[in-house]
Design brief:
Blueprint: H1 5-16, E1 52-60, E2 65-70, E3 76-82, E4 84-89, E5 92-97, E6 101-104, E7 109-114, E8 120-128
Antiparallel strand pairs: 1-8, 2-7, 3-6, 3-8, 4-5, 4-7
Length: 132
């Protein structure tokens, strides 16, 4: 069986990596975390039973809209992966592009519009309670 060079390299790297528990690194090296946003959950709801932490992508075509909604019982952080959006909250709006994000707590009521010429792709992370 002939293995091509890139596949052989990947295989040798995988075999050289230590298994968990066998000299696995226990310290971070070259890591610089930065908190971009946080929502204190105790102020969002009193009961966390049956809640789910979820991460999803949301794709909005050019001119498309995510209709007016609130985050009364679903705190969220939403990150723009690609495209250009306008986010509307009350009488205010702002333009968001790749690398921008928003936080939405229980006081947030807003909607989004893709104002660019390409798909808007959001990475949305929220804590929600699925319907029973």
């Amino acid at each position: 069986m002939k293995i091509f060079a890139p596949a052989a390299l990947a295989l040798s790297l995988a075999l050289a990596a230590p298994a968990l528990g066998q000299d696995a690194p226990t310290q971070n090296i070259g890591v610089s975390p930065a908190v971009l946003s946080e929502i204190i959950l105790s102020g969002e709801f009193t009961d966390i039973a049956n809640r789910v932490l979820r991460m999803r992508t949301i794709t909005v075509t050019p001119g498309g809209i995510i209709g007016l909604h609130n985050h009364e019982n679903r705190p969220s952080v939403e990150y723009v992966l690609s495209g250009t959006a306008a986010e509307y909250r009350g009488a205010e709006s702002r333009v968001l592009q790749a690398g921008d994000f928003i936080s939405a707590d229980h006081t947030t009521e807003h909607y989004w519009k893709n104002i660019g010429g390409v798909n808007l792709v959001l990475l949305a992370v929220d804590i929600f309670q699925p319907a029973p």
